[in-house]
Design a protein that fits this description.
The protein contains 16 helices and twelve strands. The protein has a six-stranded mixed beta sheet. It has two domains: 255 residues, no CATH class; 257 residues, Nitrilase/N-carbamoyl-D-aminoacid amidohydrolase, CATH 3.60.110.
Amino acid sequence: MSNARVWCYCLVSGMAYALSVSNLIDGIPWGLFAWIALLPLHRVLIDATAGQAFRRGWLAGFLAFIGTMYWVVTAMHLYGKVPLPVSIVLMLLLAGYLGFYVGLYAWGFVRFEQRWPAATWIAAPCLWVCLEYVRTHAFSGLPWGLLGYSQFQWLSLIQIANVTAVYGVSFLIVLVNVAVFLLARWMLAKNPQRMFRPWLPLAVTVTAFLGVWLYGMSQLHVSPVDRLTVGIVQANIDQAHKWDQAYRVETLERYRRLTETVSPQSELILWPEAATPFLFEQEPDYQALVTDMTKHADAPLVFGSPALRRRSDGTPYLLNSAYLLAPSGEVSGRYDKQHLVPFGEYIPLQRLLFFLDKLVVGIGDFEPGPGPTLLDFERGPDKRQTRFGVAICFEVIFPDLVRRLAFEGANFLVTITNDAWFGNTVAPHQHFGMVVFRAVENRMAFARAANTGVSGLIDPAGRILTTTPIFTEHAVIGSIPLGAPSTMYTQFGDVFAWACVIMALLLLWFARFINGPSARFSTQRKGVRYA
């Protein structure tokens, strides 16, 4: 195959992947592209050596993640003040790193076709999930744009996530891609009788798809025992003004005005991450303005603000915190962000990378909090105790981190974020779509407050109850079902992902000892040609 055709196929595969996880325009089912996104990649692996397969897979992944992560340039250049050429280079390096995982998938795919073609159909989705799981944890982890997220609007297909997390949906998508590819390859072959027959993969794929769909249909009904009315404030504070002292009063006035529109009916009010343009505990005058708002609202308030702490030697450090204020205005709980954004909230390996500074302009370096922490408040005339967990911004993209909050006994979940860094790009929509999976995985309602959007409410089955447009002032109110139903994923965690890791490694190991039909991923040596 010529280099031009290879580039063309890799570009199509990369574009299909990027579009499937983007949700850029409402009303268009972008997620459908995921079910065929890997077909062009698989096509260029025909006749490829293992080395060629890795390079072609890396190219397809590189192009896919340029389309998925292009907003990194906006975050670094527009808000982090990094020069545009440097921002572009850093985004390309990130896309290149993420493309490495697709390259490994392509390499493994070809290795199975060389050595053990009868196992490719089950080994490929296991390998894909294995690599997604590694990406979730390696080098602090970056599970942004996992393939399964493309289906966040297809509720009947994603309910399996309460057993497998998002990885199970990725598995099904890759299984379909591989089965369709094997069928197409067999149908187009001049001598199909001399090729591996795809009937078993097709039968298993159809059965798995129907089983997942039927299971999902059975899970869509939600029978809440209790409901909570939540008011969400999206203040839309310009990132350029956020920490400017000249805008403090204006910012707080905007929060006061929006909060008053939801406070009469709300049992809980949410502000976004870092909502206060000051250190809440350190500035009594401004602190009093926030506590007065809470007293006037007569409802608990959750908001984000940095917290200043000191080590035993007196050295100061910051925590990215979520505070819970009681209706009396007193602090009744605080959660400190556990999983920080590398190069955004801190510099990893700072002694080695001493010459680097954070890529976003802020107020200092942060340190991680101690771990899962639940916040609770009383509500109603009978003073019912209600508990919830908070994931701050980046944390919500990590399935296991949110699972541990649910496992501790939360009745619902909250995420607060400041997506202003993303600008008017697809990233806020991608970020919101991941929250749908966290709700489904734990069968627990989610409330999301974002500075510039998307804010909204999601029920335990992943239904989006309400959303706000981005970069607009909004105050919305709605009710979510409460409860603490125990899903298999909440109880046992990433068992499915680990099973895929083990299966992929075992199958790769066994494939070493099986003599395939050829030393190359080509059946032409056996007299098989393609139409």
